Amino acid sequence: MLAVGPLPGRRPARARWRERKENDIRILWVFAHPEPGSLNGALRDAGLKAVADLGHEVRESDLYAMDWNPVITAADYGDAAGRLVVGRDSAAAHASGTLAADIRAEQEKLRWADAVVVQFPLWWFGPPAILKGWFDRVLVQGFAHGVHADDGRALRYGAGPLSGRRVLTVVSTGARPETFAPRGVHGDLRHVLWPVLHGVYWYTGMDALEPLHVASADRATPADAERHAARLRARLAGLADERPIPYRHESGGDYDDDLVLRPHLAAGAAGLEAHLR
Amino acid sequence: MLAVGPLPGRRPARARWRERKENDIRILWVFAHPEPGSLNGALRDAGLKAVADLGHEVRESDLYAMDWNPVITAADYGDAAGRLVVGRDSAAAHASGTLAADIRAEQEKLRWADAVVVQFPLWWFGPPAILKGWFDRVLVQGFAHGVHADDGRALRYGAGPLSGRRVLTVVSTGARPETFAPRGVHGDLRHVLWPVLHGVYWYTGMDALEPLHVASADRATPADAERHAARLRARLAGLADERPIPYRHESGGDYDDDLVLRPHLAAGAAGLEAHLR
Fold it and tell me: Each residue of A33-44: pLDDT tens digit?
């Protein structure tokens, strides 16, 4: 049995954040763009300067600069002989401290952080492979999920090992903002990013903040770039005060024993909105 | 101006499929699991045998066996000097035939195929990084999107270079099926896979079939494995006759000039279901 997370229904993020002075926030900035000279590169630079000016501590995972390997292989788990079973073998390697060194280094950064900024261009309606593989390799069973309370229930969705952290997603698209609005052709950005916001962050206990959408990125003028930098600075300055997306807690009573939403909640609704409190 | 796709509203898949004899379907099988000895490996083997028995032609992209590189870099586009702009540089390299050889080989398989089977374990609610990077690197502008009709409109969502193909997704999860039902805690599987079904397949013109969900994969007994293989064989036998997910065409009149769904359609709905005809 590993670390046990907070009880459902409590606001772990608030408690954690109250304990820290506002100018002493530890921020991990994960950056997944191949070109430092891009709009994303400029926004990353502006963001890092802003958090330094705010007096926060910051560490970086610049995945392209690190030449991050995004592909899970048996070598990640000490090359255990025989058939690879990712869940089982990753949990065993985590428990015995034999995960690949690059994975352990990223886990240490996540343990350290109070907040994470995850910045990427939206490629095929999701994170670039190099970032998807950061989730795949770093968030192993026992570290980020697969941890149980004393009563046997899994600590997931609002609870779990990474509780108390909050994540700001900074995502650029070539498309215009209205095409990612609720009735836009690409789908509501919150829904497009559901696998990341709800499936990665919230599943592991981290609060998902509303993503910062940098739209029409391919056509950005210098004035647009400065406008986006100002939006980013404002979000970073208010990081501790934002209200996260109010996803439902798995163990808060809203889901039944089969983990299906109880019929009286969001009655009749079958869309992703039903999973908001 | 590259190849111009079919007009919106026509059923390109049907036309293409009518022209082929039922026993002469060309299938590309994309497989993204690290362990050939897994349940996924057994299902892949059963599926390949089934399509051979049906008399179809098949080619494979076994991404782990190929040691597929999922990370876009400037080297993909002939190492053009200066700042990397992925959309622009990939389109230029495609147009001049200088894309990396491994990308061109996968594009040739897609051109050849009538149908694609995309098989993967769901990791963090999306495809493993090695598959995400197959989408990222192979589906470049000019090949899979970014192509325009004579009147200037983009051929996307039901139209475009890959029209006439259909895709069957075979996806395994550790979780039970009801947790991916419309009110299950993880979200409806169709919504979780929206970025792939609507954002990759339909965007490039390919018809998305209802995914085959292999649930509770970690606990599968030999009898379960055989049951899943039988389900897969049935889907493969009916591949030509299935009705794809009826996503709306971008240029079919349902979206306005800003690509926002017209107010009288699915009035008031803001969920992803609104994008179904």
Answer: 999 999 999 999
